[in-house]
Amino acid sequence: MKKEIQKIALVGNPNSGKTSLFNRLTGLKQKVGNYPGVTVDKRSGIFKLKNDEKCELIDLPGTYSLSSKSEDEKVVQDILLDPNNKDFPDTIVFVADGTNLARNLFFASQVIELGIPTILAINMMDLTKQQGNIVDIQEISEYFNIPVVGISARKGLGVDELVTLMSAPEENRSNKIFSKSKFDKILQVSSEFFESTSDYMLFKQSCNASEILEKEQLAKLSASFKSEGFDPLKEELLEINNRVETINKASERFTTKASEDHKTTTDKIDRFVTHPVWGLLIFLFVFFFVFQAIFTFASYPMDAINDGVVWLGLKVSELLPSGILADFVADGIFAGLAGVLVFVPQIMILFGLIAILEDTGYLSRVSFMTDGLLRKFGMNGKSIVPLVGGFACAIPAIMAARSIENRKERFITIFITPLMSCSARLPVYVFLVSFIAPREFLFGFISVQGLFMMGLYVLGIVASLIIAVLIHKFSKQKSDDSFILELPDYKTPSLKNALTNMINKGRVFVFQAGKVILIASMILWVLSYFGPAEKMDHIEQHYSGLMEQEGADIDSLSTKMSSEKLENSYLGIIGKTIEPAIEPLGYDWKIGIAVVASFAAREVFVGTMSTIYSVQGDIEGKSGLKSINFSYATAFSLLIFYVFALQCMSTVAVVRQETGKWSVAIWQFVIFTGLAYLSALLTYQVLA
After folding, report:
1. With the C-alpha atoms ordered 563, 566, 572, 575, is the resulting torsion angle positive or negative?
2. DSSP sequence for 242-310
3. Reduced to 3 states, what is the DSSP secondary structure of residue 379?
4. pLDDT of the residue at 615
5. Less CB within 10 Å around the terminal CB: N or C of the chain?
6. Among 87, 110, 137, which residue's Cα sits nearest to residue 13?
7. 652 touches 619 (CB < 8 A)
8. Does an H or E element contain 431, and which?
């Protein structure tokens, strides 16, 4: 049956430049989602071949072999070993890193022998020449009996020639390494259970039958294996060892290397970047810049988006008759949209900077340097980016955990990232610390309030590491004790690649997590707007009468009316209902409303306190809010509560998106809220 559109898969090792080639070919005509049942990125895009035929380009996750270990490798294996898979490609473009050719050709040789038409694109040829190495394209093509082309995906060199080859792919029946004769009987039996395109594909299907076949079929095949003395694991390992030896030997004639005395730019830079002292200082500087970019630079577009969307909501509501519909549009829909779109600059900046750091090769060095420390807490070196990013915003940080292959290590990283004190906590911290710490300086320059703030950040970090250790010790899932990480050569980053990455990540957030956030925002608005009809009507009539009096302070009365309506709304009723539960923490029903409302976003706490107490003035917390009379114990209890509480529906939504399970997001919310409650309870009872 002829497919509607030709599918071409990009396959290759991590850091081979595969994504740069994908971005160059597809531009912004990309779709990003998840493969069914897993949280691995599924990236595909449409582009035209030389004959004007449209094809779907699929960017498969970067892996090192066809032997499944991580989620990423499993996805690649499931697609390439199953001709009935909807993503099974008509053509494969294998992207190999020319600066690490032998290492890349092992996986390439496996893919080539699957019998799918394959083109070998040797990338980074410009860097290979800079290193003084010469790659013999013709020799490689003759050895594997497939088309081979040298390219530079970042600069676009050779890409036109590659597209020409993609437009008319050749049949591929190369069988250079795998020896069929040893497995004739096994392959004959296996052919009854699998559809394959080559003997080697059939061999790999046989070795992985336990993950592919149903129980009855597997039992029959296993009986045949036993009678023939075929041990899948043993035979696969032997085949891999033989392949490694063969490829390493063949690779010696593929590349003419520069003299051993030739020191590359990468070698010179790594003397400092991976140095125990200088490397740490460079790491701190780089991530200080990343943190500042997310925390400070993003504030301008965030403010503009928030103000712009709210202004647009008011203008749209003015076109409608005054009443419920106008209020819902302005404060429900558009305020909810602002709550979604306001995070987009942070997400785009973080992922743009990650793309640049990854393109340069520095990100691999960071993972390498921090792996030893993080492994003690059940994570690996790749966890450092989400954890550091969490200090700015947990949402893009959790999304950044996609780069972690091992499921357990990725889960631990996602689970503890919300405990990093994000920028949204800052208004709450500033507001509450002012009730606790005096505005004094030690030694004339060390702020006492600043020390309190630092203590809150340290508390979150310590708690997160303790939780990470507990999950690591008691989880039944296994961590990957090995940490396979390639240190690519340094290269100039592609700004086009970074921009494409920024736009795509922002789009994924808006259309996936954004839907949940918008719905939750509208629910919160309904709860805060409506209440028992008789009571709400009475409040409205009372204040309307006062406003009609001569000399009435309209703004003051309007604020008081909003406060009283909020108190008697369903959200206010919830606050009074939970008051007995939060009273031991030192909170009254007013604080209860603010805590519930801040689930929309932590910083909402300050604005809600301003409204509910009918306080006028600067809602940033300098004049009006200071007139709220919190006790020392209550303020400290609230601070501790917000250090631990997962008071952010956006985070809950993105955790569900990244793990694929509501259960994880719910358990995370329950555990952190429980921890926040108990810690706040202990704090208040000790200090009161």
Report:
1. negative
2. HHHHHHHHHHTTTEEPPPTT---HHHHHHHHHTSTTHHHHHHHHHHHHHHHIIIIITHHHHHHHHHHHH
3. coil
4. 37
5. N
6. 110
7. no
8. helix 426-436
Whether the CA torsion 48, 39, 653, 459 is positive or negative: it is: negative
**Residues 6 or more apart from 446 whose CB is under 8 A from it?**
none
Per the DSSP assignment, residues forming a β-bridge with 92 are 9, 118
Cα three-residue angle 424-658-471, rounded to 5 degrees = 85
| β-sheet bridge partners, residue 135 | 255
From residue 415, give the alpha-carbon distance in Å to each of 269, 479, 596: 35, 15, 22
What is the pTM for the complete model shown?
0.65
DSSP string across 155-179: TTBTHHHHHHHHHSPPP----SS--
Mean pLDDT by 10 residues, the chain (688 residues): 76 86 82 60 84 89 79 83 91 91 90 92 87 86 91 89 86 71 84 88 88 84 85 88 89 74 69 80 77 70 83 84 79 74 78 81 78 83 80 79 80 90 74 74 70 81 91 73 63 81 78 69 79 87 84 79 82 87 89 81 68 44 51 89 86 86 90 93 91
Sign, CA dihedral 328-329-333-334, equals: negative
Instruction: Find out whether 528 and 574 touch, Cβ atoms under 8 Å.
Output: no
Bridge pairing between strands 134-135 and 41-48? unpaired
- In the 8-state DSSP scheme, what is residue 152? B
Contact of 592 with 575, CB cutoff 8 Å? yes
SS3 8: strand
N-term to C-term CA, the chain:
76
Report the run of H or E that residue 33 belongs to, with start and end.
Answer: strand 30-34
Domain boundaries, the chain: 7-256, 532-561, 569-687
Structure tokens, 576: 């009074």
Per-position DSSP letters for 165-227, written without gaps between them: HHHSPPP----SS--SGGGHHHHHHHTTT---SSHHHHHHHHHTHHHHS-HHHHHHHHHHHHH
What is the Cα–Cα distance from 665 to 465, expressed in whole angstroms? 19
Read off the tokens for 3.
Answer: 């497919």
CB atoms within 10 A of CB 434: 18
**Collapsed DSSP state (helix, strand, coil) of residue 62:** coil
> Which pLDDT value is given to residue 291?
63
Burial class of residue 322 in the structure, from the number of CB atoms within 10 Å of its CB (0-12 exposed, 13-18 middle, 19+ buried): exposed
Ramachandran quadrant class, 17 (left: phi over 0; alpha: psi -120 to 50; beta: rest): left
Supply 545's token pair. Answer: 């009468």
Task: Give the homologous superfamily in CATH for domain 7-256.
Answer: P-loop containing nucleotide triphosphate hydrolases (3.40.50.300)
Query: Which runs of consecutive H residues, i.e. helices, occur in 81-136?
Result: 101-112, 125-130
